[in-house]
Amino acid sequence: MRAIVSIVVAGIALGLSACSPAKPPVGRWEGSFQSPDTMIVARLKIEKNGAIFLSAPDALNVSTDPDQRAIIRARLAQDLVSSWPLVQPRQMHFNGHIFRYPGRVAPQMKWDASTKTMTVIVYPGTLPEVDIPMHPVTSFSSDPWQN
Question: Is the overall model pTM greater than 0.85, yes or no?
Answer without folding.
Answer: no
